[in-house]
């Protein structure tokens, strides 16, 4: 069976007023995870809460803003959080494993494959990996920034069947239901592009302790569904609903997986890598790669930004700056500055040596979903 990934946010793990752990919710979640294991599902839990639990432990009443303080608080909270999980899972003789990741761990192909092998091995051993961002050492450039995105990348990495995003609202609405009582519930999203027509208001940062709010859950749904994962946003205070959803109940907001899931390597190019630059393409080049299935040639590039080397990831944008694709570039930014807008047969003479015919080959290019 393909794995199930569950992500639980700080807002569901802690009590809103005191910031203390919501122990009964966590205990029910643990029971549900053990039930899923009994049904044969490998399970990965992505758990937030290090900063929230650390704050409660240290008597802080607000999430710290200074980076060093947040990192220190996360170091206090992460250990406590794991201890609580281990105590509860031990009641079911269920081994768990702590996996702390930074973006850099997935950005390099060899480290990505290494992370893949470790997850496979943990799941084969019957352990439940409990994943969080390695907040204590993550620096800004190498951060996922929020666990919604991290959970979708993990779901893609382990080729999960389901990703459940457990939060403090029962589903996605047309607007933040806390601000707007007339907000309409959204039950099923067949295709991510359907969301544009709904003109959602997904508010700001989320609850006091949460990071990212609904916006990062939509990003997670985008990453997950493009990897063939069914993504569900649902109420974290009702973990038993997960079992009902698996049996077909209409609970939460479900995002249908894309039928043509992209290959593991292309998923890594699209979401694992950290882009080092941007190439701005004219409309002919956008058409060639988006509808013609072609590679990107120097002739279609109008401008570029950033400093990159061959095989780095770059974003391919139209002239309005909208990202249309991502790919591995065959030239450094210095070489590309000399040849952008030029025909392929002029390139060798301009650079003074043989050069690849394409700037981004179609095998190394992934369209934005
Ligand atoms: N359109 C929307 N539909 C549902 N919730 C929304 C919407 N826009 C903003 N929100 C807010 O997002 C919050 C959940 O995000 P967040 O606090 O980051 O949770 P978590 O800690 O679970 O990641 C909800 O409490 C809700 O107020
Ligand atoms: N890594 C951080 C959580 C980051 C995050 O995305 O939080 P949340 O929005 O509560 O899921 C922590 O453990 O506190």
TrEMBL record:
Catalytic activity: L-glutamate + ATP = L-glutamyl 5-phosphate + ADP
Gene Ontology molecular function terms on file: glutamate 5-kinase activity
Broad class of where this protein is predominantly found: cytoplasm
Keywords, sorted A to Z: Amino-acid biosynthesis, ATP-binding, Cytoplasm, Kinase, Nucleotide-binding, Proline biosynthesis, Transferase
One Pfam family matching this protein: PUA
Localisation per UniProt entry: Cytoplasm
Sites where the protein binds substrate: 48, 135, 147
Assigned EC number: 2.7.2.11
Enzyme class per UniProt: transferase
Domain PUA as annotated: residue spans: 277-360
This protein's pathway: Amino-acid biosynthesis; L-proline biosynthesis; L-glutamate 5-semialdehyde from L-glutamate: step 1/2
Residue numbers binding ATP: 7, 167-168, 211-217
Highest taxon of source: Bacteria
SUPFAM superfamilies in the cross-refs: Carbamate kinase-like, PUA domain-like
Family: Belongs to the glutamate 5-kinase family.
Role, per record: Catalyzes the transfer of a phosphate group to glutamate to form L-glutamate 5-phosphate.
Protein's UniProt name: Glutamate 5-kinase
Species in which this protein is naturally found: Limnothrix redekei LRLZ20PSL1
Taxonomic path: Bacteria, Bacillati, Cyanobacteriota, Cyanophyceae, Pseudanabaenales
This protein's encoding gene: proB
């Amino acid at each position: 069976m393909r794995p199930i990934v569950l992500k639980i946010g700080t807002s569901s793990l802690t009590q809103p007023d005191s910031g203390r752990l919501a122990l009964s919710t966590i205990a029910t979640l643990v029971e549900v995870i053990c039930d899923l294991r009994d049904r044969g599902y490998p399970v990965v839990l992505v758990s937030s809460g290090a900063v929230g639990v650390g704050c409660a432990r240290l008597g802080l009443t607000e999430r710290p803003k200074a980076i060093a303080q947040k990192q220190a608080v996360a170091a206090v909270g992460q250990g406590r959080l794991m201890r609580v999980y281990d105590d509860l899972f031990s009641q079911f003789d269920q081994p768990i494993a702590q996996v702390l990741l930074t973006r850099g761990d997935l950005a390099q192909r060899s480290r990505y494959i290494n992370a893949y092998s470790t997850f496979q091995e943990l799941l084969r051993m019957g352990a439940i990996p409990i994943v969080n961002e390695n907040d204590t050492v993550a620096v800004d450039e190498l951060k996922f920034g929020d666990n919604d995105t991290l959970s979708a990348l993990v779901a893609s990495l382990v080729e999960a069947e389901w990703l459940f995003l457990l939060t403090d609202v029962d589903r996605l609405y047309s607007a933040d239901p806390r601000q707007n009582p007339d907000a309409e519930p959204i039950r099923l999203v067949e295709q991510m592009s359907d969301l544009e027509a709904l003109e959602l208001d997904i508010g700001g940062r989320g609850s006091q302790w949460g990071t990212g709010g609904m916006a990062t859950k939509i990003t997670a749904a985008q990453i997950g569904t493009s990897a063939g994962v069914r993504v569900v946003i649902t109420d974290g205070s009702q973990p038993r609903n997960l079992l009902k959803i698996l049996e077909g109940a209409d609970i939460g907001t479900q995002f249908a997986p894309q039928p043509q899931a992209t290959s593991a390597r292309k998923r890594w190019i699209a979401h694992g890598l950290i882009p080092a630059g941007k190439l701005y393409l004219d409309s002919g080049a956008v058409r060639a790669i988006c509808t013609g299935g072609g590679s990107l040639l120097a002739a279609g590039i109008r401008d570029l930004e950033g400093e990159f080397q061959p095989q780095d990831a770059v974003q391919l944008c139209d002239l309005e700056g909208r990202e249309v694709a991502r790919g591995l570039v065959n030239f450094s930014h210095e070489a590309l500055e000399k040849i952008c807008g030029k025909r392929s047969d002029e390139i060798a003479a301009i650079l003074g040596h043989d050069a690849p015919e394409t700037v981004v080959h179609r095998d190394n290019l992934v369209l934005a979903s």
